[in-house]
Every structure is written in C-alpha cells, then in structure tokens.
Specification:
Layout lengths: L2 H13 L12 E4 L2 E4 L1 E9 L4 E9 L24 H21 L22 H7 L3 H11 L9 H7 L3 H12 L12 H10 L5 H10 L7 H21 L1 H16 L7 H14 L3 E2 L9 E2 L7 H22 L2 H21 L1 H10 L3
Antiparallel strand pairs: 1-2, 3-4, 5-6
C-alpha cells in the first residue's frame, strides 16, 4: 500500500476520526477478566475505474453496546479534525465567525474572512479541484503559480480598512482584543524548559485564539500530546499491521492495473512522482543540490524560452497523470477507512483499561 495514504490513516486515529465507511457489529466473550475476540465479517461494496469488487473485512468488537466508540473519546479536550477540504473550509469559517462574535462583545467590528478559501485546503488527500489545475503540485511547488499562469488574484482582508481608519491607540486596543497578550515570556531570564512550559499552559485571551481553540482544540485541556507520548509506540504497531495487511497489496495491484489500462506503467503512486521529477531533471529544469538530503531546486527559466515550454508541457502531463490516479483510487480510500476503523477498534479493545485511566487522569 502507498505509505502516504497509510500515514493519513494513522494520524487520523490519533487526532481525528473519519466517518465509518462500513457497518460493524459483533460480540466479545469475557472469561476470567480477559476479552476473547469474536470477529464478524462485513462486506463493503467498492468501485474502481475498471471493475466492481467487494472487500471483506474482519472487525473485532467488544462493545456491543458501544459500537461508535473512538479514540478521541479518551482524549480530553480533543476535537475531531477536518477530513476533507470542505470540512477544513467550514471549520475555518466557523473560527472566523466566532472571532467576529467575540470582537463584537468587546466593542469592535470584525468581518469574518478566510484568505484564499477554495484553494487554501487543497492538500487534503486526493482533491480533484486541485489536481485539475496542478496535478500532484510538483511543478507548482517548484516554480510557483505565477510561472504556470494560474495565480489567483490576492484577496484583501476587509478588516484592514477597519484598522487603517483607527488612531494608533485605537489600533493597540483592537489588536489586543483580537490577538490577546500571549504567554508571559522573558527569553533573557527563562530557560527553554520554562518557556516551553509557559506556552503549554497558556490560555488564549484574544478572540482569535479563543475561537481557534474552540474549533480546533489545543491548549492546556487538550490531552492529544500526552496521549501520543503514552500510546505512540503501540499506535506505530497498529500502523505496521495495516501496512502488512494482505489487502494492502491487493489495492496497490488494483491501482496499478487501472493505471496500466490508461497507459501508465506505474506500480504505485510514488512512481508517478518520481517520473515527473525525472522528466524535469532530464531537461535541466531542476537540480538536486549536493548538500541536500532530499528535494530538488528549480533552475532559472527565461520567459518565452524552449525550456519554459517544456516545463509547462510536463505540468500538463502531471495533471493528466494525477487525474488518472484519482480515478483509480476510489477502492484505496474505502480500504483505508476499513483498515483505520479495524485498527482503532482493536486498539481500544486491547487497551481499554489504560485508555479509561488516561481519560480519568487528564480530565480536569
């Protein structure tokens, strides 16, 4: 299975849970205080570009009366994070609206504003809107949107006009209400540990910080960092079991076959990334710095040159490949959700007592 996708799955198990794709049911036999797994196969229809298949998964269930339990249920102060560009955009708008309401309570005008909404959250998974313009984003990241002629006009924050009309003293009050005072830090007298502790214990007092904490979580009441510190190694083991699952190889094979039917000879998506970089390197558009552990550097390109035309042609090819990959990836995301949910339930089943204790210890 492509490692990037599995990383998304594991991160979601710690910080945010996706909507369950399949239907899960089952029982657990308890004898002598030990839970014996009883697994119930479920069948989830999935669709690829070329074939219609069914994925059968075996899901452990202890919680016949608690089938919706999730990891974040045991992490005080955690918030389910966005899983799609649409959800991320909605959360950003909510934070802005809460900021505006808070500012109004403090006697200031504030207009909710999300810079570049629509493109701001285009890095979530396989975003078709982003791919139609930039493919995987390789050429764009190396040469920029201006080079590709797709730079969107900048949006002006409507709140700039509000503050520009204020006196300096009024601006000080406005920004204090918006951003707060921040943690009490003295870098000359405090050790790094003391500074870190000050940030960790800081409770936002500005409208923006308060709004973002309400929407995204964080702050002293959020136990996510402590959770990962305590359970991180066990979660890595869950990740390893996902990657070794036989269905991972099956989904890679389905993706590769689908791409081959469209004329691309890639075994996995990483091969497509490597292909684009190789094409750019072959024409002298990028170089790999000798002192860089990874990554490439873009070379200067003269406007109107043959090299510019070649790079733009590769950018168009990148879009075609990315769109083909999206069309061949439906089955992959269904499998990711199956594996994520199975791993999450197994983890909860095996660590239920410790999770309950963690929740009790970190609930104020």
């Amino acid at each position: 299975m492509r490692r990037a996708g599995l990383l998304i799955v594991v991160v979601s198990m710690v910080a945010a849970a996706c909507t369950t794709a399949g239907s899960y049911s089952g029982t657990t036999d308890v004898e002598g205080g030990a839970a014996a797994l009883t697994t119930v196969p479920t069948t989830t229809p999935t669709t690829t570009t070329t074939t219609s298949t069914a994925t059968t998964s075996s899901v452990p269930m202890d919680m016949a009366m608690d089938t919706d339990v999730r990891l974040e249920d045991f992490i005080p102060g955690s918030v389910i994070g966005p899983q799609t560009a649409e959800e991320a955009s909605a959360m950003a708008r909510e934070a802005e609206e809460l900021t505006a309401a808070c500012m109004a309570e403090r006697g200031y005008e504030y207009t909710p504003f999300v810079q570049g909404e629509g493109e701001l959250f285009s890095t979530f998974g396989f975003d078709e809107t982003f791919a139609k313009s930039y493919g995987f984003g390789i050429v764009r990241d190396l040469f920029g949107e201006t080079f590709l002629g797709k730079e969107s006009p900048g949006e002006e924050d409507p709140n700039s006009a509000i503050t520009e009309a204020m006196t300096p003293a009024e601006q000080d009050g406005y920004f204090a209400a918006l951003y707060g005072q921040g943690p009490d830090i003295d870098s000359e007298t405090m050790t790094q540990d003391e500074i870190d502790a000050a940030y960790e214990s800081y409770v936002p007092d500005g409208c923006r910080g308060l709004a973002e904490q309400q929407v995204y979580g964080g702050g002293p009441s959020d136990g996510s960092a402590a959770f990962y510190e305590e359970f991180g190694d066990d979660l890595e083991a869950v990740y390893a079991s996902m990657e070794s699952d036989p269905r991972s190889a099956e989904v890679d094979a389905a993706w590769s076959t689908c791409m081959a039917d469209l004329g691309y000879g890639f075994t996995e998506e990483a091969d497509a990334y490597e292909y684009i970089h190789d094409e750019l390197f072959a024409i002298g558009a990028i170089e790999k710095p000798a002192d860089a552990a990874f990554g490439y550097a873009a070379m200067p390109i003269e406007a109107g040159s043959e090299l510019e035309a070649q790079v733009k042609a590769i950018a168009e090819e990148e879009v075609e490949i990315a769109m083909a990959s999206i069309g061949c990836s439906d089955h992959m995301w269904n499998l990711f959700e199956d594996l994520r949910r199975e791993g999450e339930l197994r983890f909860i089943l095996e660590h239920r007592d410790e999770l309950e204790q963690f929740k009790a210890d970190h609930t104020s």
